[in-house]
Amino acid sequence: MTQAPRSLNHGEGKEALLSATVRVVAQKGLRGLTFRAVAEEAGVNNTLIAHHFGTRDKLLAAALDWTADRSIGAADLSEYATDAHAFRTALVDNVLSAPDDEIFQFEMILESSRRPELQPAVRALYRRYVSALAAGRERLGGPSSDALNLALFAALDGLMLQYLSRAITADELAEAVEALGIAVGNPAEATPSH
Fold first, then answer.
1. Last residue of one domain, picked from the residues 17, 38, 54
2. Number of structural domains the chain divides into
3. Pair 5, 88 in one domain
4. Half-sphere exposure of 153 (CA within 13 A, CB side)
5. Cβ contacts of residue 103 below 8 Å, gap of 6+?
6. Which of 4-8, 26-30, 127-131 has the highest mean pLDDT?
7. Whole-angstrom Cα distance, residue 81 to residue 39?
8. DSSP character at residue 32
9. Last residue of some domain: 54, 81, 98?
10. Please, which residues have CB within 8 angstroms of residue 36's CB and are 6 or more apart in sequence?
């Protein structure tokens, strides 16, 4: 049963549509993304989508930015900058808190391989994530270079994909992130503090 469109306060519409877009794509994939599906998920009239975003691609790009903002900003990882184990734990907790965001991002990444017009948004997404990881690692004082930070994020990305596809559990994800951190961290980190 379709719910009647609801009235939103000023500023709520865009946020509701972005959140609904992510949920629709996480549940149905990009092929299931229509203005009608997003409007139904958000409980609004579908004309609101065209008003805020204009096109499907602009909606997708905005949702990609929105999920990156949420993922990077959900936890202030800088507060853990002096404790590598706590930093990695906070990182895993942050990632596991919004699986729909992660699924949406992977859908967009895969779609960009077929649709070059989406590639700039995906490149920007990866730059943001690698920069956030590099900033955290810099505060921790471990070895760092652009290439190493890119490689580390690629490893984290792969682990997240394995988790989302249910090839590994949340505990295995956490253990792998911890092992990765120890492998590239300071020698003092090599002794687990459990």
1. 54
2. 2
3. no
4. 19
5. 25, 26, 164
6. 26-30
7. 41
8. G
9. 54
10. 46
CATH for 8: 1.10.10.60
What pTM does this model have? 0.80
- Residue-wise pLDDT for 138-177, tens only, equals 777 767 789 998 998 899 899 999 999 999 999 999 899 8
Token pair belonging to 55: 């096109």
Same structural domain, 24 and 89: no
Owning domain of residue 17:
1-54
- Closest Cα to residue 129, out of 104, 150, 160? 150
**CA-to-CA distance for 175 and 128, rounded, in angstroms?**
25
Find the Cα–Cα–Cα–Cα dihedral 132, 89, 24, 109, rounded to 10°.
40
